Description:
The complex is a heterodimer.
Chain A: H1 3-30, E1 31-34, H2 37-43, E2 52-58, E3 64-65, E4 70-76, E5 79-85, E6 100-107, E7 113-121, H3 132-141
Parallel strand pairs in A: 1-2, 5-7
Antiparallel strand pairs in A: 2-4, 2-6, 3-4, 4-5, 6-7
Chain B: H1 2-33, H2 36-65, H3 72-77, H4 84-89, H5 95-117, H6 125-145, E1 154-155, E2 163-164, H7 180-195, H8 197-209, H9 214-245, H10 256-281, H11 285-308, H12 323-343, H13 360-392, E3 396-398, H14 400-420, H15 431-454, H16 460-488, H17 494-504, H18 506-527, E4 532-538, E5 543-546, E6 549-560, E7 564-575, E8 578-583, E9 586-590, E10 595-599, E11 601-604, E12 608-617, E13 624-632, H19 635-652, H20 656-675
Antiparallel strand pairs in B: 1-2, 4-13, 5-6, 6-7, 7-8, 7-9, 9-10, 11-12, 12-13
Helix pairs in contact in B: 1-2, 1-6, 2-5, 2-6, 5-6, 5-7, 6-8, 7-9, 8-9, 8-11, 9-10, 9-19, 10-11, 10-13, 11-12, 13-14, 14-16, 15-16, 16-17, 16-18, 17-18, 18-19
Amino acid sequence: MDKRKIxxxxxxxxxxxxVAWLGFSSFDESVxxxxxxxxxxxxxxxxxxxxxxxxGNVVPGSILKADQGVRFTLEQEGHSLNIRYVGKxxxxxxxxxxxxxxxxxxxxxxGEFQSTVVQAKCASKYEATYSQEALKQATSQNP
Amino acid sequence: MQVFLTDVGQFTMLLAxxxxxxxxxxxLLAGKFGHRRLAATGERAAVAVTALVTVAVMSLWYQLxxxxxxxxxxxxxxxxxxxxYYKVGALWGGQEGSLLFWCWILTLFSMVTVxxxxxxxxxxxxxxxxxxxxxxxxxxxxxxxxxxxxxxIGVSQGGAAPVPWAPPDGQGLNPLLQYWAMxxxxxxxxxxxxGFTVPFAFAxxxxxxxxxxxxxxxxxxxxxxxxxxFLGTGILLGAMWAYVVLGWGGYWGWxxxxxxSLMPWLTGxxxxxxxxxxxxKGMMKVWNMVLILATxxxxxxxTFLTRSGIVSSVHSFAQSPIGPFFSTFLILMxxxxxxxxxxxxxxxxxxxxxxxxxxxxxxxxxxxxxxxxTTFAVLWGTIFPILSEWVTNEKRTVGAxxxxxxxxxxxxxxxxLTGVGPLLAWRKTSLRSLRKNFTIPLASGLGAxxxxxxxxxxxxxxxxxxxxxxxxxxxILAEFHRGARARRRQGQAYWHSLWVLTFRNTxxxxxxxxxxxxxxxxxxxxxxxxxxxxxxxxxxxxxxxxGPYTLEMKEVESTDNPNYSSAMTRLQVWKEGQALSEIRPxxxxxxxxxxxxxxxxxxxxxxxxxxxxxxxxxQDGSRYIIQAYIKPLVAWIWIGGAVFILGTVICxxxxxxxxxxxxxxxxxxxxxxAKV
Lengths: 143, 676
């Protein structure tokens, strides 16, 4: 193999290794685990300190704007979780009672989930297909 | 009329599917056996498919505009109160309609390809038509049998056959999508996505026929540039939408759907650079082939990721049964690409080899490597949740910090190459020419850096980014200046010679202008390092201070119309004691969907945007919450977008001497006719 080729390979290798290093070094702190509310509560102390994403429906009437962030409760499959949102940005427009929301953050000792990112969507309102039950209901109301 | 046109739509869509199958089979057979007349029937079938799908689209548009809520699609993506332009836009506002729309653009591309290349590329054409027909057939299959926009809402009672039924009003287009850029963002993005089908078809055709000389790559280059332009524009319009509509002051969040559109754009960018190597030096042929194939496959992967609901995203298309169809199609297309690539590897050998590490060639090579590395990092981050679930059975995801940490340094390195690459000589660059070309740009960049730091700039990446921006701008200006000066010596005026220079070699100078656009974009990105924000609960008369600005709340008004009710506040903006303008952030409640949205108010300048959100009353209802941001340099992103379009359009204009050369044979022909 001649010298030029070695130089090129070296150059390419530097680029590839640099990118790989950038990826690996930021990876662990950026990873978040998807957990259901039930799973999270079953984890106990193991959950402390990990970045976790939970999803569920916002319990109607639970949204309270407190001095330190916004408190609300997420409900999923019969389990509920108290969350305190401490992020800087405003909560999204779609975040309201009954909305399907995702919160990312950490479980604090004491059972409160401290979240820095909240996303929400009105999943039930959009793209809802007219299921047969809904149709029967609708047609019986407006004959 | 509505019922009749629904039937017309159903029927034309089905007929289009049948004809598309014919175009596919006839073209492939014609290619295999070299049967000209069969090939011609395939081409005609492809054009007929375009006409049929056009009729289907028009029919669906009619249903949307006349609000025929008997159709599932119309009822779920529009309502009575929507203004007509959003009803038109509802064609691409939901799953089924957007797939039909996608298919329509594809058939339009297919028609243009047939009309332009039928005579010019007789050997490649049957295969090209065949491959495009394959993709069209797939989309028509999905549209007819899996996601049909003409499906009626049927009510079946007591096991009887379903009876058509229409709800009194539709559910309406998602209010977040009711914004002008959202009406044009999807079509422009789709033209980008879909357009990559044509270069892909040419690539496969060239591989199959082993006609891997210059012809196909020259044809393909233009066909890559057009969708690349549209995809880039579409991405930026999406960013603009996110910035103005979503109300968190950002334009990019590394959402899976955003990533899906970015990846093919990155590989397309890589191709547009390395294709120069193939044309000039006969090098990087395998590489170019891989880039074209990858670009198309990434488009299909993007569609699959976003439509199947397999990754969660703010772009919440409903979970739907089209996922498996797309994954099967993706696997088939990948297998097809890989098979032909590996069996034709011998013919794609490089004609030259690299001479020096410091040369134009190697800068292209490194640029490509870096672009691919970014693509790979983005791909990895995007599909990581899926891979993680497969391998460890634990669902994990990576967020924005990962993407930023990887892509910011890569982006800065790319920006650096943007400045360096064009100044390096082909083959080998001497130390003397390096010194001659780089002294002034480097000195300007470093000088600017000293100034930035002296004026208190501390954010590391932003400062490096702005230094590089100065460096790259100076290299590009120097390049234009050199050319213009050389011409001026021949007695032409300076500005005139700049103009002539640009249109003598549009590709080169258009390319430089796109590089300038990238500089503007990076200036805008660098601004993010200096964001400020401030939240305050206010009553009329209160003032909010942020940076050099003061916001004074004047009053809160509410209004009402059939589509939404709204609360709006008027805020007087002061800057250093001077009254500037009045801005009106608003909060709307859309009636059909009962969804609130924030209408952001902006005070834009080239230096910074003042970005204000009205978040409505606080907990006890006595005060109103105002969130204000200062977003430095954001305007440069949109300016960069405009320059990007300009530069790419210039690239697409044929060179002046090329146009002259095309005219010559015509004259010769005319003369020879005259002799006869």
